Amino acid sequence: MLELQGVSKRYDSGFALHGTDLTIAAEQTTILLGPSGCGKSTLLRLMMGLVWPDTGRVLLSGLELTPRNVRAIRRRIGYVIQDGGLFPHLTARDNVTLMAQYLGWERQRIHERLARLVELTQFPWDRLDQFPAQLSGGQRQRVALMRALMLDPDVVLLDEPLGALDPMIRSELQNDLRDIFRTLRKTVVLVTHDLGEAAFFADRIVLMREGRIIQQGTLRDLLDSPAEPFVTQFIRAQRRPWETSPE
Ligand SMILES: Nc1ncnc2c1ncn2[C@@H]1O[C@H](COP(=O)(O)OP(=O)(O)O)[C@@H](O)[C@H]1O
Ligand SMILES: [Mg+2]
């Protein structure tokens, strides 16, 4: 579905991403995992042309992303960021429907799509006309998700979408998100630095470090056949104190 071929990106401070090949399978959830600053967000932003690579190319369904087609291609991609990125001066409803209105959808079609999304995300109907600041963090992320899904994209990219939420809300939204992705059969790429969250969502984990992909596979693959000592170190660093050691 999504393919990166020899993609690299450098800033003044150094490489955010070294030459990278990556194939993202359709209708699966792929997790980009790794410590802060390892290039996860850069990789995600490259996938939708928010950042352009210094070398290599990005393809969506075999079509190379270029400045000419990027606007059209972005409509096939939903994007959710940590704080939701909602427009503060627009109501929840307008945040969700803005792009469809811009594209000239009929009122009835917009209404039907919105109703479907409200049901899917279990967002309270009576809060649709409130502004982001009047909503809870969890509700804001449900709005951000509805907005990302409004045009029924093939691909959904999420950059630490639950990172700012407290643990109870976070776990509730994790469950709902996983159900939604399974129901819709979307191609999902989700960034997190949290191993537990990665394990919960992942069909496939892509573990990164310092601008490189270190290993790809299931959590089991990472546990049983670590590609380098870093893989084990990363997993151990996140082990919960109440878990017993596997040795
Ligand atoms: N716009 C930018 N300008 C300069 N450096 C950047 C920019 N975006 C990211 N970087 C640098 O690139 C590296 C990777 O960043 P990022 O992709 O945001 O990592 P992650 O999302 O894994 O925390 C970091 O060293 C970061 O400081
Ligand atoms: Mg990031």
How is this structure best summarized?
The protein is α/β, with parallel strands linked by helices and 247 residues long. The protein has helices at residues 40-47, 70-74, 92-102, 107-121, 137-149, 167-184, 195-201, 219-224, 229-237; strands at 2-11, 14-24, 29-33, 55-60, 63-64, 77-80, 155-159, 187-192, 204-209, 212-217.
Q: Characterize the quaternary organization of these chains.
A: single chain
Strand content: 15-25%
Mean pLDDT: 94
Order of helices and strands: EEEHEEHEHHHEHEHEEHH
The chain-level structural class is alpha/beta
Tertiary shape: globular
- The CATH class of the largest domain turns out to be Alpha Beta
> What is the assigned CATH homologous superfamily of the largest domain?
P-loop containing nucleotide triphosphate hydrolases
Low-confidence stretches: none
Strand order of the largest sheet: 6-7-8-3-9-10
Helix content: 25-40%
Rounded to the nearest angstrom, the radius of gyration is: 19 Å
Number of domains: 2
Tell me how many strands there are: 10
- What small molecules accompany the polymer chains? adenosine-5'-diphosphate, magnesium ion
The rounded distance between the terminal residues' Cα atoms is: 39 Å
CATH architecture of the largest domain, by name, is: 3-Layer(aba) Sandwich
The number of helical segments is 9
